[in-house]
Amino acid sequence: AQSVTQLGSHVSVSEGALVLLRCNYSSSVPPYLFWYVQYPNQGLQLLLKYTTGATLVKGINGFEAEFKKSETSFHLTKPSAHMSDAAEYFCAVSPQTGANNLFFGTGTRLTVIP
Amino acid sequence: NAGVTQTPKFRVLKTGQSMTLLCAQDMNHEYMYWYRQDPGMGLRLIHYSVGEGTTAKGEVPDGYNVSRLKKQNFLLGLESAAPSQTSVYFCASRIGFLGNQPQHFGDGTRLSIL
Description:
heterodimer, A: 114 residues, mainly beta, four-stranded antiparallel β-sheet, 12 strands, 51% strand, globular, B: 114 residues, 48% strand
């Protein structure tokens, strides 16, 4: 069975500081991994994904994430937070076989302090 | 290109009433999904469809029915609404079989059951 754990339901950082949002997954086989962002009153927008190949993936808005199989992690980072990064972030996994449904973490709300 | 469009955007129902949420996508995607989003619980899959005329149950299907009569539309029905169904509902679509392709989300329907 697939599951996703996002440590920290709320994270606050100062503008210009490093953003680190944690995601760990549980799966018997390495899944496909996704990060989505949700701005207030909007749907989810894809930030980045890992499927195969290079374990460090770059996404939109300066975000990147690294797949670490040994740690079953896919943490999201951004070197310098911007006010516009304030949103809720969801990590999701999809098995490589079957209907490939997405399993979401419970989300992390990022606050950026001026 | 509209992507995934959900109607209505907001709705208030009384307990026991019925209603249908409509999801339409113009990307010719095969797979479509209905999720509900509740505070602190992330997104949970209600039902999904892998093609026109097909539907399948997700994680939380009780109290909901779906239909996919046309490829571009995926309807979610509540036959007898209950307060526990107060939530934000998201529709998503994906191009097809390959699980490494992302899901595209609509902006959601905010539903309150009194």
